[in-house]
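Hi Q.,

Before the meeting this afternoon, I wanted you to have the manganese (II) ion prediction in hand. No need to reply - just skim if you have a minute. The sequence and ligand are here:
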Amino acid sequence: MNARTILIIEDNPLNLELASDLLEVAGYIVLRADAAEEGLQLARASKPDLVLMDVSLPGMDGLAATAALKKDPVTARIPVVALTAHAMKGDEEKAMSAGCAGYLTKPIDTRAFTSIIAGYLKASEISARESSI
Ligand code: MN
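Predicted structure with the ligand bound:
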């Protein structure tokens, strides 16, 4: 099986580094962006298997960026998992209504992180297979 590619869009350098390191150690190819606009360009150009999207980004926020990915036929089917530091009530609903497949709160659980990501990838592959029948 080919290595899966994950695009992380996160403006906090430490969080970006941590998530990248964990995914690379687990065998994923990681693409990084620290702003939404750059992330959207990378997503269109590289069509990653999954996008990890920080909700709070300078300029365009992660929910607006997710909505933009979902509107573009090139990137619409890529699952987006939101990352947020704000464990605020309503955030999950906002992430889901923007089109996110799921939601993780920061700080990430370093022991569970890569298996959670693997779970989202698997769910997305199953739904892609079902919709192609
Ligand atoms: Mn941020």
